[in-house]
Amino acid sequence: MTAAADPVCKLWEKFSPGAFEDGDLILGGLFGIHLRTAPDYNSFHSEPQLIPCLEFNQRGLRWMQTMIFAIGEINRSLELLPNVTLGYKIL
Q: Cα–Cα distance between 59 and 80 in angstroms, integer?
């Protein structure tokens, strides 16, 4: 018995909600930003559409912005972590 050449499930396109910045070291952040979304009625027979966000969690959004700002400040400093660039991946 041989394995099939194509997987049963595969992504149609790249989709990555969140924020990303490359660096020598990547820091991760998980922040609840979407407080309420519209109902999702995927049929699983066609490409799903993006689910619109109806309400933001302001606290989670501030935490995300704070992380991005702090990493930018560290990267701009010549005294903190010389010759190292921090990046981030926030979901």
A: 28
pTM summary value: 0.68
* DSSP per position, 10-79: --SS----SEEE--SEEEEE----EEEE------SSSPPPPPPEEEE-HHHHHHHHHHHHHHHHHHH-SS
Running DSSP on this structure, what letter comes out for residue 80?
Answer: S
Which residues make Cβ contacts (< 8 Å) with residue 88, sequence separation at least 6? Answer: 19, 20, 21, 23, 26, 27, 28, 29, 67, 68, 71
Supply 41's token pair.
């009625």
Question: For 30-88, how does the pLDDT look when each residue is reduced to its tens digit (9 = 90+)?
Answer: 988 877 777 777 777 777 777 777 888 899 999 999 999 999 999 999 999 999 999 99
